[in-house]
# Entry
Amino acid sequence: MRTLHQTFAVPFQFPVHFTSGLFKIDNPTLSDTLDARGDRAGKKALVVVERQLLKHFPLLLNQLALYMQVNVPDLQYIHKTIIFEGGERIKNDTGAVQELLKTIHEQGIDRQSFVLCIGGGAILDMAGYATSIAHRGIRLIRIPTTVLSQNDSGVGVKNSINAFDKKNFLGCFTPPFAVINDFDFLTTLDDRDWRGGISEAIKVALIKDASFFESIQRNAQDLAHRSMIPMQQLIHRCAEMHLQHIASGDPFEMGSSRPLDFGHWAAHKLESMTSYQLRHGEAVAIGICLDAAYSFLQGRITSKEFEAIFSLFRTLGFTLFIPEMKRSQDLIEGLNEFREHLGGRLTIMLLDRIGKGVEVNEMDQALLVQALQLLEKYQHQDFQVECNEVAVR
Amino acid sequence: MRTLHQTFAVPFQFPVHFTSGLFKIDNPTLSDTLDARGDRAGKKALVVVERQLLKHFPLLLNQLALYMQVNVPDLQYIHKTIIFEGGERIKNDTGAVQELLKTIHEQGIDRQSFVLCIGGGAILDMAGYATSIAHRGIRLIRIPTTVLSQNDSGVGVKNSINAFDKKNFLGCFTPPFAVINDFDFLTTLDDRDWRGGISEAIKVALIKDASFFESIQRNAQDLAHRSMIPMQQLIHRCAEMHLQHIASGDPFEMGSSRPLDFGHWAAHKLESMTSYQLRHGEAVAIGICLDAAYSFLQGRITSKEFEAIFSLFRTLGFTLFIPEMKRSQDLIEGLNEFREHLGGRLTIMLLDRIGKGVEVNEMDQALLVQALQLLEKYQHQDFQVECNEVAVR
# Structure
């Protein structure tokens, strides 16, 4: 036997811009982004947009077309915009992906042309998948419009659709060409989506940064009342921590460890058990509280810490126990699905304290049932925990 | 506007083993490969195999099952082997990909379990695509069985299926977990497939290594008569050059330059124009001769060099002009499709001399028509060029 050994590294880079008024003629962000490699002339740009946005910004597509005409006339703007419904359902079959692929084919969008996707996490996931596989990868500019996608999924390297009733069964690891977060889009969110995205920020704070958790506590009332400045700060910090995590770790997840999946094994299962009526951020809030309760029952965190976490989510307006959680065995089956999706050994993040996660390789089913009962009990209590520094060790 | 800059590199490595008697109980290659990361225990292994091989090796699956049972009992071998027809047709619709995905789902194959794919380039391409997108990537062990896949596609980082009548429209860049070339499989090839794979070796020799070209010239008669030793040497050297090229260049092809696509713009179009009756290696032989003829007509290479190239392919038994090439405008349209697939500027490799390629950004249509006429004329001549050192400058 003879053997040749292949070894190489593939470098990736992309910017995450934060702006507002993205399509105003004098905002250079998009124009600069399209020309970041100095080669935009003659390239094409195809736009995919979430329908819901057009209700709030009926002139959005006209503004964008005008912006492109004025600022990037050397780029061939495809006027056949693709409009999709947002939400997780778009990921449940291949219809949207097929439509986007067909348009990429018909319009002759090549590997160095651009697809601009404007919308929430689900449509970004779907378009990210389609642009990853068409020609083995087309330049995707993500323009996330929700809290969740601006601070979490939209700045990462993953995309997916669901298949065989398994969330994210099909997908790729594909860094985007660029991400542009326009805070103006946040005004279009309903309260559920405004709130939902905060879960991922609390998640990353809980496992990595106690001071960030404290700042979210301090701003909880303002965030609940849709105050924009603390939300912008939260999104920026959360996105920054996600980017750092990806760059410093295992970007394409070849190992078993996925710290950012704290709270997610139960979240994924609850989304599926509710037929995606529960939105991702809402499910993550429950998943975090469940694994925090479990951490408390295992003696890893104090009752004060658990209550601080639970209370923060309550202040923000989350519901932390839903009827599906009474089907505890079905929910716990989510552990197996989670292990299968990741592969290898089950690896679950728990909390050692607020600001520090710890990985474990098994969960005790009886204790999980107790944790579920704890959430049910707390959900029905009108308790109020003082948010004070005692909780953060 | 504020901006965060994301930068990281993803390291990849995989071995390419050369062996024979892969499934003999005392051959450690496969066992060692499965345990390369020391974590095979509890993982699963699913096998995908090309039907044609089972005609030549009716006991192949029994041997493999026995091998696994004896040598890797800690791995869960899935006895439901998936058997597909080989050949490019398997890439023309999503049926095979769907069947493989469904089995991956049903059998609970996770991201760190293994899919072993035994077959030619088309089935490896298809299985590579399916295993790239399922769970965002399952470990694929490629066991290529043709000259073409052992020396070229099987050792690379690409996979694909065809869509919208465009070759390789859907696909990913995904390095395999490992590649195992078993020379015994070459005995199963018909003459067309034995011969076809030599094209890619001549291609890489022509653009990079004159001494390799000369060695193929020296061995041409033996290769034409299916002599195994020179074929093994050719495959090893060609695979080595491909690996070096990928590692030293732009593995995921983010730029416009693709030197290894020498001769491929016409090859892809001819495959499509003949509804894949022409096999890939046969089409590449024509594509190389066409671009060599064009290089000669442009004064880049001498008539002696062109004739040495043409003569080598003829000695090996290739047909270098087919009726479809009379539809020159249709064929030349392949340039546009090639540019669109790559994206960016048209970049075509021509020859400066034997052993040295040169990239150009346009091709003259009138000269291309002349090059086609030259091939037609030479095809009908029973000429014999002396293979001598004069041709290699």
In short: Chain B has two domains: 16-188, 200-391. Chain B has a mean pLDDT of 93. The radius of gyration of chain B is 21 Å. Chain B has 16 helices and eleven strands.
